[in-house]
Amino acid sequence: YPSEFLVQKITEENQIPVHVHVSVSLQYVAGLKGSALVEFFHGNIAEVENEELRHLMWSSVLFYKTPTVEVMACVLLSTKAIYFLLDDSFVHADEHQSDFWNKENSDCENSSFHLSCCFVLKLNDLQSVNVGLFDQYFRITGHSADQIVTCLTRDSYNTHTFIQQLMAVLSLLARTPSPEPVDKDFYSEFGSKNTGKMENYELIHSSRVKFIYPNEEEIGDLAFLVAEKMDGLTNLPSLNILLYVLAFQVNHVEGSAQNTSSLQPKTLILTSSDLFLFDEDYISYPLPEFAKEPPKRDKYQLADGRRIRDLDRVLMGYQTYPQALTFVFDDVQNQDLMQNLTLDHFGE
Question: What 8-state DSSP symbol labels residue 123?
Answer without folding.
Answer: G
